[in-house]
Write a structure and sequence with these properties.
By secondary structure, the chain is of the alpha+beta class. Helices cover 27% and strands 39% of the residues.
């Protein structure tokens, strides 16, 4: 199991989360702020099976809007190993 932590711009949050949910991914949203200009962002936590990581990343890449400011990225993604996953 893998955990994708995706930090997306607030303006892309709804579209990215909706695309992931529509394609069967579970998403947890956390409001966050970061970067040099302290722009609003949302952190999406997505638990996925290892064979679905590329599909999730592709959806995020395709759903984020275009970059409007030079040097500003559309999203930052981290893919982490998950040692244990439990739902209570």
């Amino acid at each position: 199991m893998k955990m994708i932590i995706s930090i997306v711009r607030d303006e892309d949050n709804a579209a990215v989360a909706e695309a992931l949910i529509q394609n069967g991914f579970r998403v947890t949203r956390i409001a966050s702020t970061g970067g040099f200009f302290r722009r609003g962002s949302t952190t999406l936590m997505i638990g996925v099976e290892e064979n679905k990581v590329d599909e999730a990343i592709k959806l995020i890449r395709e759903t984020c809007g275009p970059v409007t400011d030079p040097g500003v990225k559309r999203a930052t993604l981290f893919v982490l190993d998950v040692a244990q996953f439990t739902q209570v």
